[in-house]
Amino acid sequence: MDASFVIEWLNLATRWAHMIVGIAWVGASFYFIWLDNHLHAPLDPADAVKGIGGEVWAVHGGGFYTAKKFKLAPEKLPPELHWFKWEAYTTLISGFLLLCIIYYYGAQVALIDPSVMALSQPEAIAIGLAFLAGGWLVYDLLCRSAFGEDDLILGGLLFLYCIFAAWALCHLFSGRGAYIHFGAMLGVIMALNVFFVIIPGQRELVKAKEEGRTPDPRFGLRGRQRSVHNTYFTLPVLFTMISNHYGGLYGHKWNWVLLVMISVAGALVRVWFVQRHKGNANPLVLASGLVMLLLTAILSLPRPSIDAGGGPVALSEIQPIIKERCTPCHATRPTQEGFAAPPKGVVLETAAEIRNRAETINQFAVVSKVMPPGNLTNITEGERSLIARWFNSGAQ
Fold first, then answer.
1. Which of 8, 36, 381, 395 sits at a 20 to 30 Å CA gap from 137?
2. What's the first-to-final CA gap in the chain, in angstroms?
3. Structural contact between residues 269 and 262, judged by C-beta atoms closer than 8 angstroms
4. Phi, psi at residue 53, to the nearest 5°?
């Protein structure tokens, strides 16, 4: 059986699973943030006596619901207590498997770019894993340090670390590989927050009640801090999950700056939603996020095509370049190892197909230079220049 066919189906099944469990995790996370920020004093005075600190009423799917939150814990634990953890764990596991399939097994295509840094496959994988583990260690150390007691200082330090990580990754890997590792690093932090802090804290609260002790409130406070961090990381992570579709961003000269800017935009939008839940939404926060997104778009505007000068170039002059450098992947039946089908369904076998994709070819092969990925087919600068002259002369 063709290995590329197997990899394609592993990719499909794992990506689908990752999307399903990821939606479940993000949905639960967003719901509980919303729930926490909509609690009001209980309507029944007897509930306050029982230790209930807040409640929220809702209508959905043709029925009424009420959710109540205890200030610390109920006097007696119920026979069944639902835990929200498997969504996070399965998202982490499926995401890591997907990373292995696409970026580690296919490192020469998706992760390594010799023009950025000439890495061997083992070196690239080791660096990627180091960032995933190191990101969590740095983050957790900062949260547990004295800086963790001041949310403003902690936030500033975490932001500086994210800037460093974005810069470093974009100077080690292909832009596509750098973006996904930045998001994976944040995703690992989010999942390990659940595994090492939030769930253990909840277990301690339950254990204290079972042993008749008064639960230590610091566990709940620490868990809530990490939950808040997770909700602000979510939108930047979601962006990196789809970033491989946007070569104009990850292939840009300032790709690490664009990554930081769009992550800030996502975090600001999420901040506004959280404020909105609380009833004190500041329109300036949302405006700041949208302005940051606009500035990212402006900074990523395509640069002029490379043009070494000379007269117009005919299609017949660049067809051999396309055939040798692009068609191995972009063919009805790709000959490049690891490709079972042409990426995004783009086929460049005929003159008409090349003309119809002229703008795309120029953008990805000349402007951003993200194609061929990792320069697998060894396109030269002279050949890129010839494509630019063809495009600038009307792509005829």
1. 36
2. 41
3. no
4. -90, -20
